[in-house]
Amino acid sequence: MRKMIFLLLALPFAGLAQTKSVINTSRYFPKSGKWQAFEKAVSAHAKKYHKDDFAWRVFTIETGPDAGGYMIVEGNSNWTTIDGRGDLGAAHTADWETSVQPLLQDKFSTMYLTFSSDLSTVAQTAYTEKISINHLFIRPGFRTEIMDNITANKKLWEAEGAKTAVYESSLSGTPQFSVVTRYTNGLKERDDVNATPFIERFEKANGAGSWKKWLDNMKAGVESQWSEILYAKANLGSK
């Protein structure tokens, strides 16, 4: 009986400890003519030094302002684990500085994001080879309106079977939502949905007049946005 009571008391804390919704994304840009060397070096580094909560998934950025770069996604993790990570060690730092860093341009960015299961239509770890990301940068005070828009989008995604993961930036520059579409069957999925005008599809899922409200929220609450296509490179990440 005492063992059962202990297990019941431990359940809330176990659930909290197992929540791993935080990822870190970093973008790197190899020097001209150094792409193959960069991929070889990153692959070796990831497999040796990045495991478990800090495992890497690597993507090539195919379109948009960062085209030609690579996005490295580290995690899933949580803030408690990140807080206790500590120094990665001299060997890790030396390997990066000698094998990877010399191949890179100075251009670089990094950020933390948190996965939103309430706004998404796919499990956090249901990854695909090809994805697109729509970055929505939010004006101060309009987070609720943009969340309402994403909730309306979710109704459309669910109606069409779209696999979409929504992340929100955390302590990483201008507040933004990153809406990640995961293409189970590749980019050809876009042909099927785009055969019907977006507004027609949207109002079918959300009701007459819903498009105007969505558009008004966008005009008021979004400072800027941009999108891109990325391809996963499983051989470059952790194993």
Report on the structure:
- This protein is of the alpha+beta class and 239 residues long.
- It has a single domain, classed as Alpha-Beta Plaits (2-Layer Sandwich).
- It contains eight helices and eight strands, in the order αβαββααββαββαααβ.
- An eight-stranded antiparallel barrel has the order 1-3-2-8-5-7-6-4.
- Helix 5 (143-160) crosses helix 7 and helix 5 (143-160) crosses helix 8.
- The longest helix is centred in the middle third of the chain and has 18 residues, at 143-160.
- The protein is globular, with a radius of gyration of 20 Å.
- Mean pLDDT is 93; it is low at 1-16.
Assembly state here?
single chain
**Integer count of domains:** 1
- Give the topology string: H per helix, E per strand: HEHEEHHEEHEEHHHE
Please state the second-level CATH architecture.
2-Layer Sandwich
Features:
239 residues, alpha+beta, Alpha-Beta Plaits, eight-stranded antiparallel barrel, disordered N terminus
